[in-house]
Structure of Phage protein:
Amino acid sequence: MELLPTKLIEKDGEWYQVQKLTHKPNLDHVETVSGSADEYYTYSELADTRKARPQQRRLFFALLSDIYTWSGMPTEFLKNLFYLQYESYTFGKQISLSDTTESSVSDANQLLDLVIDFMFEWHVPFKEGYKLLPREQEYYLFQCCRHRVCMICGNRADIHHVDVIGAGLNRTHVDHTKRHVMALCRVHHSEIEQIGSVAFSAKYHVPVEGIKLDKETLKRIGLKGKYSSD
């Protein structure tokens, strides 16, 4: 993933985002993919170029400790493994989380995402790392739903609807893409319904607004419904 210098320009009351490319684009490829070389869609994310934070380093090594406990693979080996995976993912860009690092907050977040993806995919138990996970990140909440892992304790989860589905309404007739959800185990699912979302959020220091999932993810986790795009 390449970071590109970007400028914001206002013209006639509208804002435009302009990027300076580091090389000549393949216009034939652009036209093949998007149908036009003049206008096309890209994903855009605001990069945090501040120096990587000590908290990110602590989380990284806490997660590696969890993987070591699960697999027996030495922490140094795991560190080099994920550094190499990051280098491959970013087409050769190197990363370091040392005190003298030049890597940014966004760089470190990409590295952490690779580790978290691995742990969810292989069902590695979150222990020490779980205490440090940034639960406010939508990405983490998405992964909890995607893998049916409770966002509070890490146990097997059900999908809790923040937007309450009325009594007697058949859930298979609901378009779940339009509703906010959270991944909670039976214990924490019951608790949030007993004490309410405000008290629940204060107790566990987590957001309770939930997130929306796309149709493919909902079907992947077995949440049947009547989706408008079907």
Q: What stands out?
A: The two ends are 33 Å apart (CA to CA). Residues 59 and 132 are 6 Å apart (CA to CA). DSSP finds eight helices and four strands in the chain. Confidence is low (pLDDT under 50) at residues 41-47, 166-170.
